[in-house]
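The data are quoted verbatim here:
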Amino acid sequence: MSLGTCVDLRFTTLHTLDMLDDILFSSYVRLDVIRRILEDHFDINLVTVMGITDIDDKIIKKSLESKRDWKELTRFYEKEFFADMAALNVQRPYLCSRVSEHLPQIIQFIGQILHNGGAYVSNEGSVYFDTIQYKGYGKFGAKEPGAPIHGKRNGADFALWKAAKPDEPFWESPWGPGRPGWHIECSVMASESVGANVDIHSGGIDLAFPHHENEEAQSCQYHGVEQWVNYWLHTGHLHSKNMKMSKSLGNTISVSELLREYTSDQFRLYILSSHYRTGIDYTDQSMVAPVTITKKFESFIDDCNNYVAGTLPMGNIDDVTLMKGLVETKAAIRTALANDFETPKAIRYLIDLVALGNKMLHSPAEEGKSRSPAAVAATANYVTSTLRSFGLQVNAKNTAQRDIIAAAQTTDVIESFVKFRQDVRNFALQSKSKDKTLLGVCDEARKELSVHGVQIKDHGKESTWSIGGARKISN
């Protein structure tokens, strides 16, 4: 995909979440990166929609096994999912749609496909999409039609509505009690949210066929169009020892397990170092480079800030060379991102810029040569903003840590001063003549601090202080 000619388009993404499927959180991080690139680098206004599959075979099976209500079960997994995404700094979608809240729309959608002649009702009350009748079937490489099976006219047909079975949740429909098929759920939620055309539809590569194939077919049939989705984005999966991570294989890693070993920034940089369509093998060895590079970025930003503040004792900055490198890096990164989101190249260009800056920062300062804080600040600002545009929090975390340290230090200073004032005030009060000069100085100090939001109250021999209602007692 090239973005060179479509930066003026308005994109919409649709994610589909099957909460009990394999834990493939890498796909969500990759799609979050793409979302941020479109918004931050190309100024494209996105309306992101996530379809939440809270009715399907796996959920019903899990509900029966655990003897828990399926609604309670799905809300539990939904809450857990979004907590994991927050921990990985994946942005929430603009809109979330649940299957269970769209049953009337699903039934209407199926009814229209039947009316168009694109589906049929089986003897047991299920509704199947007719892949032979729909001539556009096979965009993602359809399988050869098989022999009729389980009420289907041919093997490639798929269920739009499944007839009710014992112990399963069901809803009434014109074809009898039942529940929606998996593929129809996503088409209805997307169509309900964004209409007859979706700009971008995303998911893991394993969803291309049959899931996305079937979504495209039934949506085109319903809307009477030849193309429902403009761009399909399929992400490669996270592998372990060259095998796809899967619960069935017992080789998955949870988000909490991942974040006990690495930071979200380190994992995201690992994701950025490969193209979104490629599969990646997750091992401790594969995380060595992202960890090292993340620390290199953090160290560079800190050194730049210290140089600008005048606290870095060295540095031989060539303004012209550094600014030339910055301009060239900006252009190269934009070109890479416009070419199907080539984040590996973008990261390499950023590393090269940091290497150039580091060489200058850590060279001995030339005697008599003036400092060049502007060029260093511009470079640091670009590196920081670019990393943040990819979803890393490196500068935000450093700033937060500095704020915490500064707040703690400020508290210590105030505490020490209030204690000193209290001692002086008590000394003045205990003197035979009650030293009015010292007491006046104590009152003046109290007034001065109140101007800066620090309130001091005297209670006999004890003094308390507060900022914004937080009361402290000096001992």
In short: The first helix runs from residue 25 to 41.
